What we know:
The structure holds two protein chains of two kinds.
Chain A: E1 5-20, E2 26-41, E3 45-49, H1 56-63, E4 71-76, E5 79-80, H2 86-93, E6 96-99, H3 103-106, H4 113-123, H5 129-142, H6 159-171, E7 177-181, H7 189-206, E8 209-213, H8 217-223, E9 226-231, E10 234-240, H9 241-246, H10 251-259, H11 265-270, H12 301-305, E11 311-312, E12 318-319
Parallel strand pairs in A: 3-8, 3-9, 6-7, 7-8
Antiparallel strand pairs in A: 1-2, 1-4, 4-5, 9-10, 10-12, 11-12
Helix pairs in contact in A: 4-5, 4-6, 5-6
Chain B: E1 4-17, E2 20-33, E3 37-41, H1 48-55, E4 63-72, E5 75-76, H2 82-88, E6 93-96, H3 100-103, H4 110-122, H5 126-139, H6 145-148, H7 158-170, E7 176-180, H8 188-205, E8 208-213, H9 216-220, E9 225-230, E10 233-239, H10 240-245, H11 250-258, E11 308-309, E12 318-319, H12 324-330
Parallel strand pairs in B: 3-8, 3-9, 6-7, 7-8
Antiparallel strand pairs in B: 1-2, 1-4, 4-5, 9-10, 10-12, 11-12
Amino acid sequence: MGAEPLLRIENLQKHFPIRLGAFGESTAVVHALDDASFDIIAGETLSLVGESGCGKSTTGFTILNLHRATGGQVLYKGRNIAGLDEKAMRPIRRDLQIVFQDPYSTLNPRMTVGEAVGEPMLFHKLVKKPELAERVAQLLGDVGLPPRFAQRYPHELSGGQRQRVAIARALACQPRFIVCDEAISALDVSIQAQIINLLLDLQEKYGLTYLFIAHDLAVVRHISDRVGVMYLGRFAELGTRDQVFGTPLHPYTRALLSAVPEADPVAERSRQRQVLEGDVPSPLSPPSGCRFHTRCPLAMDVCRSTVPAWRDTGVGHFVACHAVPG
Amino acid sequence: MSERLLDVRDLKIEIDTRRGRAVVVDGIDLHVDKGETLGVVGESGCGKSLTMLSLVGLLPNRIHTTGGSAHFAGTDLLRMQPAELRAVRGGRIGFVFQDPMTSLNPVMRIGDQLMESLRQHKRLDKAAARQRAGELLKLVGIPGAEQRLESFPHELSGGMRQRVMIAIGLACDPDLLIADEPTTALDVTIQAQIVELVKGLKQRLGMSVVWITHDLALIAGLADRIAVLYAGTVVEDAPAELLFRDPAHPYTRGLLASIPRLHGEDGARLSSIGGTPPEPGRRPQGCPFAPRCPLAEAMCHDIVPALAPLRGVATPHRVACHVANRVREAA
């Protein structure tokens, strides 16, 4: 791609210490994210996929400094923002926003839609009180809601409408970057398509950059420029959409794609599915070497002992696997 | 003609609300033949789960069946005495629910939960029930099945818990297994395991399956026939291949057009269905889909279309739409 990165993530790491036992007598560390290094290019949609507990949401949160990184850097405008305190973060927050899966739990039930959307602008002193209503109406228009919705409360809205409000709120400060953390996962199929289209329209209109966290691979294929595949806290593969879906390199990516059902009964009947055995191991004590080796059909001795290096195969297609040549 | 196992006709379910009774299921017609897998597809609130719960008398308080019939192997489930129904539920009809963490008893060992149903329905003694419970866990592919009988639900992973749920559903060799979104809470690789498991079991045990889901891609490879529900009614009912190849109802067509595909063409924008489904109690007077329908005509807003066979097709393909026949013939 060669374009300027909006964010550069270097060796980012996030561990959560937890207490175990009935009285918290012992402690352990959840290895939620280890050694993540990648760029997020201005104007692109980079998706992160993987199964629950793979660290995709942790990656999003840690980039936004909503989780304090255990190690590594997040470079934004040439400056490391990982670990900045709240005060130093404040002006940067305007640029970096997030939309969550469940807007019902993130919107204040006692605030009208207008108040919820207007609040960030007042907080960052971006508009004066008299202009607020107009700007709120404009934002609601951007997300396809009529201005009268400003007077409504979250419980009066449908799931799709609430997600539109959450998006309007994220847009309020004219951000450059939005993390969409399973933002469409809870929506019904017919509504999901509406919100996907809305996100694409807004990206075009405002030149937004998305980090799109999702587990639905068909949706990810539809909206992404590039895709990162994660397994148990590490990146397995990252490349353009066509690279990852068309010529997947990592055995985990291949297994993941093979597990996705297709909306075609004829194709499904003749399909040879590569079903992965077993479950994802615990992130409390991830397997040695390559974390996928316990379920990998290609596992060799070296996979059990040595963490595979994260490398570019030459065309911006990154992979961490001993079995991939080159 | 294959033998009919379950035949639901004109089922009506209503909820008591503060503003009176609201209709949530409005005249559903469904049937399942012996050995068949029926996929029941619809979005949240379309009544797909309530319909199945009503069959075995598991509707929550304040939700009632107010009409219709549901014949299972010749007897109307809706008119059974509670004791008779108890014998059917968990006996000839097995259930698997979406979330095993809330449907398994957290303070009871896996083995005891399995044995409970075996002792109740099959009148097995303790030793025999225990042996059968071990076999069942083996059947659903749980490693170390014998030892797992001693485990509590929280000691198992999500996928393993769902396997236990399936084992309980299968415990009494049911004629019909009703699976209500059994893989929705699971990761895609685990979902693939469960789907392969149920497909294999169905073939080996020769039972019928009703698989309830909102996921069209998932059901494509699973079902022999699919019923599409919208706002408490069946809008289309066709063999799976036909439904995907040649959907007749505008809602089905909209749904299929709005899911992104893993292969093939990648258009810039998905086609989407405008608006939202009606809330229970605020159903439109005519066709429930009319307010969102691109093809709606005046009559659609006034008269509810009946679920009727499509004209000029050999295979049974039923659709509830005033304009479907005309649109197809014109095309």
